[in-house]
Fold this protein.
Amino acid sequence: MAMRREAEVQGDLVVTWAEMPRSPGHAFYDRLQNLLSEAGFDVFVETECKPFYAPRMGAPSLPPGRYFRMHMIGYFEGIDSERGIAWRCSDSLSLREFLRLASRDKVPDHSWLSKTRSRLPHEVHEKVFGWVLALVAERGLVKGERIGVDGSTMEANAALRTIVRRDSGETYRQMLTRMAQESGVATPTLDDLVRLDRARKGKKLSNEDWTSPTDADAKIARMKDGTTRLAYKPEHAVDLDTGVIVAAPIHPADEGDTTTLKPTLDEAEKNLSAMDLAPTREDPCDLIADKGYHSRAVLKGLDDGPWKTRIAEPTPANGFLRWQGDEEARVAVYGNRNRLRSGVGKQSMRKRGEIVERSFAHVLDRGGMRRTWLRGRENVHKRYLIHVAGFNLGILMRALFGCGTPREAASATSAVLFVIQTEGMMAIVMIAMVNGEIAMLVAVVAPEPG
């Protein structure tokens, strides 16, 4: 046999349909496609988005269903940028089928994602998130009995070194240069500025004094790894019985937990009421949170309401509490303490540490949203809502098919064992299945014992 050598590839002028390459399809995306199609996802999003497009004039735009599917792919594939999403979809025939692209259609460019996101308002993204939440609730995966709340940090697409003073517009480097010149250094170098910045005392960056010229919504905050960055604060309200996220607002990073708790609970209550699961004073819902959310004002505001608090209590500085005649605060704090110390409260607190932290690990770390490439809190929140909707769809897929992510589906293996016994003979057959296809067949035939 002669050796074949590589040569220049000449493009075909005509290619028949039978000669075009086909993908066997990814088991996860095929099942997710069937799930969305049966539920009428495309009809829903096109109906909601229709008022924001021209009725007749103009070229056809990116279909809304394709736009939202591409952002879901960003979560399932762990891609942080929209440019990366477009590249990944272009490289995969399975993802092209999931996007419902014809053989001659091109994958939408990342600029189309930006244009579509700017055209569609925030309310549409909220409705898509609510539609997915309702789809999950139809399968009984939203209980609404125990809600865990916690927050995290998300790095903004803005550099800390570019911040400027609000009063004068002076940059941080200009401030250091001025301070160096005032100390006697006529022409300070970059190394001089670094040494000065490290040595000076009372160094503090306040959001009241500094802002970012590129992203005014980003705030100076300490990240989970201890570094200081311009950031946002995503907060999750999670159903502790199933792990489904029922609310995912994004707050300014400089707001404390006690400040952001009420808006998050209002969002969770609105989403639960759409599924007839909203808590009431007669049938309250357990609220589980860490000690960062504990304050007398918060407990007084939530006492005797639709939320039954089980919020971790920090240890008092001097060992005991002073009430100074505030009887309502005393009743609320001691009631929360008693509920927290019960067996149900301890079990719920352990569940919160597992379920709520897992949601951040999936959405931010594995899902690629720990750092955002968009600017503006509302702009970031649009993509984040669809990202979280993908997380909820993953929980539904795991409940229906046993796999919640494409990687999990690719590595899933099941085996079936059959024992066939006849007169004088016994056969043992094992069939191993990978992604619904037979990967191994083993048969052992032996005489019947005895």
